[in-house]
User: Fold this.
Amino acid sequence: MKNLGFATRAIHESGTRKDAIRPLRFPVFAGVAFDFESAEAMADCFFGRNLDFAYSRISNPTVDLFEKRMTALEDGFASVAVSSGMAAISITLHNLVNAGDNIVAGSSLFGGTYSLLTNVLAPLGVRTRFVPIDDPQAIEAAIDERTRAVFLETISNPSILVPDFEAMSAIAKAKNVPLIADSTVTTPYLFNAARFGVNIVVHSTTKYISGGATSMGGVIVDLGNFDWSSIPSLQRYHRFNEQAFVARLRKEVYRETGSCLSPHDAYLQTLGLETLPLRMEKICRNAQAIAEFLTTQQSAAGVSYSGLASSPYHDLAARQFNGLHGGVLSLRLRDRERAFRFLNGLTLIKRATNLGDNKTLAMHPASTIFAGITEQEMNSLGVDDGLVRISAGIEETDDLIDDIREALKGL
Amino acid sequence: MKVRINGKEEEISGDPTIEGLLACRNVESPNMVSLELNGAILKRSEFEERKVHEGDVVEFLYFMGGGSG
Assistant:
């Protein structure tokens, strides 16, 4: 179905088995285990000789549909759906590293990802080298013979920086290191990762894909464009050639970490995908309008959003992200006290830590997501006490602007 | 000719390529199957040219869905 447009594939892509009832809305298969007609059939299933289902921690028909649809929308090779965005990042990296290996990552990252790299993987002997995403030479210099992945966010959260993926993928390819992109804030509707040389794309599907924060989830998509024979952690799977990454993921890391997506949540997320194009268009229009309004306000010390013509990332983001700029923007006020007063002055916009909801949300990253790290680390991640993150929803634009205008009064 | 497919001896006609074998056996999700021929996993680029011969041992293996191998 690759010749069909994105919105059509988001609704019609199937690939699942037809059943006798033929429901238009694929059902929730909530059961844990599946029956077999014989012991031989069960053994064949566990051997991998067919696509029958055995146990929902390993695979499930409702989850399978969501994975197939994500693979189609990413123009990918194979997907593995997991329980959250952090699970997607965590098990992707665990799949690629052994103790003593290293990861090269952009220096502006989501707080949870930064904590995973520094507090979880580093004590296991896997160090991360953080490099500025605007400096391809620094990234090139940071890669050595033990580097197993370059990890970048498509739009760094919450500092709103945009890497040049053509340049980054050229470097990673020359060094024979897979490039992983966290495309949570761009979704496959804005960013066709394969076209820009990315090898693995991960999403927190909790955000936009779930249909507006309906459920937790994540997904890993292998775009089928990397030769895994150079990755030692996949050594026992090299014989499976292009399937090596997915084979180890499925047989070991995904399965044994128990990071499975629940069938109920897979149902909600498949449903969410169907309206993704409609919601992303409206969300991006609202974010653009909010950003433009904020630039007219004297109390705003700065506004970060690539949709603004003044943004250093404006042309790059437009080229990479389907002419759109996403739903997340950052507002800089002078200090924490003003940031809190602004947040407390909002009446329609909700104070919440999520993004990608149908409701517009705002938060203070320094006192929440980044509260557990030092001020120096926070600053290196592009976060300070005056920073407010706004995630645009799908409300009427004028209502959002009115709420922000009122909250800014007196700052 | 006789070929052992997924642990069972089977009679197949002609001398099909791997791609032909996948098609004639109506193998589910052929884009997701790994094919082991006489103990070695083939690259997908080999499916179109590589032929099946008398006595070959063929395994279709999946890592997506099912018991996932």
